[in-house]
Amino acid sequence: MKNEYEAEIEKLNEERRIAAERINELMKYRDIQGKLNTCAKDGYVWTLTSVQSNFDEVSHISLLCTRSGSTAVIDLTEKPIEVTHTDMDGNPIPIEILDAARNS
Q1: How distant, in Å, are the alpha carbons of 61, 65, 81, 95 from that of 74?
Q2: Over the stretch 7-27, which tens digit does the pLDDT of each residue have?
Q3: Ranges of each domain in the chain
Q4: 92: Cβ contacts below 8 Å, ≥ 6 apart
Q5: Please, what is the Cα angle at 64 between 59 and 66, to 5 degrees?
Q6: Are strands 46-53 and 57-65 parallel, antiparallel or unpaired?
């Protein structure tokens, strides 16, 4: 008789483990949905995570929403964005300096 009880206990423990995993998964999805709802209502909180560029052009930009974990990857390889070089006061950097930096 003890074996029957043990078998049922093991079965119920396994069912409990599976139910707990499913509950954790559903709670995770509920949390993600809440964060996405907040982003839809209030806007994303984007953080720049990477930029691929050379001296003159930007070809890829990656963003991460720090609230929801959403990502945005902007592929600009077909039409790269030109880099504008200015000093910290917003003044354009003379072409001679840019050419010297390009060719170094």
Answers
A1: 5, 14, 11, 29
A2: 999 999 999 999 999 999 999
A3: 1-43, 44-104
A4: 84, 85, 86
A5: 160
A6: antiparallel
